[in-house]
């Protein structure tokens, strides 16, 4: 009889993005003693940018969960241990060390981990296991949330993952195709625990969500770091309104294109500042603020926006906004922006002073477009009153990086670009 060598593998906190050096375990999807297969959801991890689902890098039996939910640890710190007989290249064996046998476990040998089919069966008490349907197919929490939000019956979705597993992309394809009516209970997201609410004399109090807390930290840091100044300019948006109506889209991609052109002409605004050091970027990695309603807001980034046409910017903005609202962004999708646009005007506001998204040196505020009478000057110099589509654009800028003249010049160039929009 041949002997099976068992190893205990330490699973580290993964690198969730190039600028992320720690993560907070939100929730475990498995418990000690449960079987798990490679790529099965292990836990949810929150960073200061987004929440992400972490998959197990290897299959086996969960021996120990090393981090309690709510605990923040650095990248590389072990968060769980999995007993496995599979190849473990790239992972550290918890049994390695002085005097340890080559891959051998000094403790009594345990039974060989069940096969992938056995691992896919629900645990006896169902604790921590991904939901499954009557056919036994299992779904990750992220897939469940997406399906529940869009009324998708997961039993009718063809999975393209390992062993036919339904992945995020499969659910997105179903959403794009129009979706299906969800069967009672199918794809329902697991219940969540409500925040602790303490009654007070005239209302109620509760702990802020993780996203709200992260926003609070970032905004306070920015206010304490940057020398915030604000400059506004009035823009005739009549040409933009005609162009966006012809393209059957919003004004935002036209504004983004004009902003990119302006940043190329004024590179001091397409920059980061860190102490005494300013970095001016060759590419315009454009952040677009996306409101998540009561949950807060997030700023996904369009990489190398200078290479995109208006139509390309339109597609890109729609894609990142949809991913943001479905919780499908990765940490690297929201980091590394060089300049940000926030479009508060869609709610009807006329003037705002947004806080700079660190370490950037400027953020552009797009306000409502309002038809009103204005004085226009004809080529012959005569004046007349006409109905025009007008808007106010605001620039919040860091006085450490530029001066008032630089901010005014930027806005003047932006106004000219908006009043002479690109065609598509």
Write up what this structure looks like:
There is one protein chain. The protein is of the alpha+beta class and 424 residues long. 23% of the residues lie in helices and 27% in strands. The protein contains eight helices and 24 strands. A hairpin with a 5-residue loop joins strand 23 and strand 24 (383-398). Residues 95-130 and 180-194 have low confidence and may be disordered.
Summarize the entry for a quick read:
23% of the residues lie in helices and 27% in strands. The protein is of the alpha+beta class and 424 residues long. The strands form 7 sheets. Strands 14, 17, 20, 21, 22, 23 and 24 form a 7-stranded mixed sheet that branches.
How many helices? The count is 8
Main beta-sheet strand count, sense and barrel state: 7 strands, mixed
- Head-to-tail CA distance between termini: 71 Å
- What do the pLDDT scores average to? 81
Number of separate strands: 24
Radius of gyration, whole Å: 26 Å
**Helix/strand/pairing category:** alpha+beta
Shape: elongated
The share of residues in extended strands comes to: 25-35%
Helix residue percentage: 10-25%
The low-confidence parts are 95-130, 180-194
Keywords, separated by commas or semicolons:
424 residues, alpha+beta, seven-stranded mixed β-sheet, 24 strands, 27% strand
SSE blueprint:
Blueprint: E1 7-12, E2 22-28, E3 35-36, E4 41-46, E5 51-55, E6 60-65, E7 72-74, E8 78-84, E9 92-93, H1 116-120, E10 131-132, E11 138-139, H2 141-150, H3 168-176, E12 197-200, E13 203-206, H4 210-225, E14 228-236, H5 238-247, H6 252-265, E15 271-274, E16 277-280, E17 286-288, E18 290-291, E19 297-298, E20 301-302, H7 310-325, E21 339-342, E22 362-366, E23 370-377, E24 383-398, H8 404-419
Parallel strand pairs: 17-21, 21-22
Antiparallel strand pairs: 1-8, 1-9, 2-4, 2-7, 3-6, 4-5, 6-8, 10-11, 12-13, 14-24, 15-16, 17-20, 18-19, 22-24, 23-24
Helix pairs in contact: 2-3, 6-7, 6-8
């Amino acid at each position: 009889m041949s002997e099976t060598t068992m190893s205990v593998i330490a699973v580290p906190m993964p690198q969730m993005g190039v600028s992320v050096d720690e993560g907070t375990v939100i929730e475990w999807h498995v418990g000690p003693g449960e079987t798990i297969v490679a790529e099965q959801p292990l836990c949810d991890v929150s960073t200061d940018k987004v929440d992400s689902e972490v998959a197990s890098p290897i299959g086996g039996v969960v021996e120990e969960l090393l981090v309690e939910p709510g605990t923040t640890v650095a990248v590389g710190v072990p968060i769980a241990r999995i007993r496995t007989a599979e190849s473990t290249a790239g992972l550290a064996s918890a049994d390695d060390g002085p005097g340890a046998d080559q891959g051998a476990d000094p403790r009594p040998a345990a039974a060989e981990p069940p096969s992938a089919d056995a691992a896919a069966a629900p645990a006896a008490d169902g604790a921590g296991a991904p939901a499954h349907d009557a056919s036994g197919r299992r779904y990750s929490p992220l897939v469940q949330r997406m399906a529940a939000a869009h009324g998708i019956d997961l039993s009718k979705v063809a999975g393209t993952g390992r062993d036919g597993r339904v992945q995020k992309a499969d659910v997105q394809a179903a959403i794009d195709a129009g979706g299906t009516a969800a069967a009672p209970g199918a794809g329902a997201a697991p219940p969540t625990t409500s925040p602790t609410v303490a009654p007070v004399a005239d209302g109620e109090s509760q702990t802020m969500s993780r996203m709200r807390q992260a926003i609070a930290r970032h905004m306070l840091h920015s206010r304490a770091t940057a020398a915030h100044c604000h400059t506004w300019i009035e823009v005739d948006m009549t040409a933009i309104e005609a162009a966006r109506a012809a393209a059957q889209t919003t004004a935002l991609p036209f504004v983004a294109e004009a902003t990119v052109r302006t940043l190329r002409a004024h590179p001091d605004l397409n920059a980061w500042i860190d102490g005494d050091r300013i970095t001016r970027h060759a590419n315009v990695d454009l952040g677009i603020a996306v409101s998540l309603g009561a949950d807060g807001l997030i700023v996904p980034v369009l990489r190398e926006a200078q290479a995109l046409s208006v139509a390309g910017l339109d597609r890109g903005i729609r894609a990142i906004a949809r991913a943001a609202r479905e919780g499908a962004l990765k940490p690297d999708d929201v980091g590394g922006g060089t300049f940000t646009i926030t479009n508060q005007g869609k709610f009807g506001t006329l003037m705002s002073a947004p806080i700079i998204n660190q370490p950037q040196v400027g953020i552009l505020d797009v306000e409502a477009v309002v038809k009103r009478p204005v004085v226009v000057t004809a080529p012959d110099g005569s004046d007349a009153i006409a109905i025009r589509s007008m808007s106010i654009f605001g620039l919040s800028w860091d006085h450490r990086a530029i001066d008032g003249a630089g901010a005014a010049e930027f806005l003047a160039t932006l106004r000219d670009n908006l009043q002479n929009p690109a065609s598509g």
